[in-house]
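STRUCTURE REQUEST FORM
Protein name: Mitochondrial uncoupling protein 4
Source organism: Suricata suricatta
Requested output: structure tokens
Priority: standard
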Amino acid sequence: MSVPEDEERLLPLAQRWPRASKFLLSGCAATVAELATFPLDLTKTRLQMQGEAALARLGDSARESAPYRGMVRTALGIVQEEGFLKLWQGVTPAIYRHVVYSGGRMVTYEHLREVVFGKSEDKHYPLWKSVIGGMMAGVVGQFLANPTDLVKVQMQMEGKRKLEGKPLRFRGVHHAFAKILSEGGIRALWAGWVPNIQRAALVNMGDLTTYDTVKHYLVLNTPLEDNIMTHGLSSLCSGLVASILGTPADVIKSRIMNQPRDKQGRGLLYKSSTDCLIQAVQGEGFMSLYKGFLPSWLRMTPWSLVFWLTYEKIREMSGVSPF
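Status: completed
Returned output:
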């Protein structure tokens, strides 16, 4: 027994602890992608909050006083009214979120693909298995990361509150966690988790499933090899599909997470994700579900490109097999 143990100690860390290594590697790739594209995420969130019909019930004048602006005007407005660096407001919890979320979803998806479902003898992975695996991976990763996502969304709206003359809710990331926990208990950290995992399931069905399917189709059926060209084409496809599937759930998720709450942590605007969906469609029209689609797509596509290129490269550098 001593010989195999000695040999195991000589193995690279990626081979000794493959799942932990994949978790860390995906977290590193997600951090790079998040820093590069976060301003578009902030712009998307601000757009999704504009014209929120449910605010009228609370007598909030913000809906009337804040004119709807497109993606470019919203981004320029943030820079002019709040400062350039405010385009990265909330980036710290966003990085926390993506380390947990991306690590959880990637490890879960690969475990399901390699162990639970398994590939066929010709290395083909059926689409239906990829769809189920992608959705399940998104649910697991997002449920684990919900507290950090909640803080990210609320901190992204702090600059807008300041411009409206409202008091700021948080002094920083850790104060936000502490305040939410003290006011609503541990349950409050999972506010909005239902629409959040619904969105994550749809986004990952678009992202993971599309990337995995397109990549292996290109490798098996075209002259392209498993290289940066294949990774780039696959990630561009995955970013588009993920945006189309995920934007409506993202709008609902953002609104539920950002709504004011009572002392018990219950939302004052929406009873559930279904209630939020109905109010948005009735009060603002169906296309309100695609508010922020353009910045979401423009962010998701480069995010996917940066993430997958970085992830595949650091896997190669670390001695881990390609995704």
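Reviewer notes: Residues 192-291 form one domain. The chain has a mean pLDDT of 82.
Form closed.
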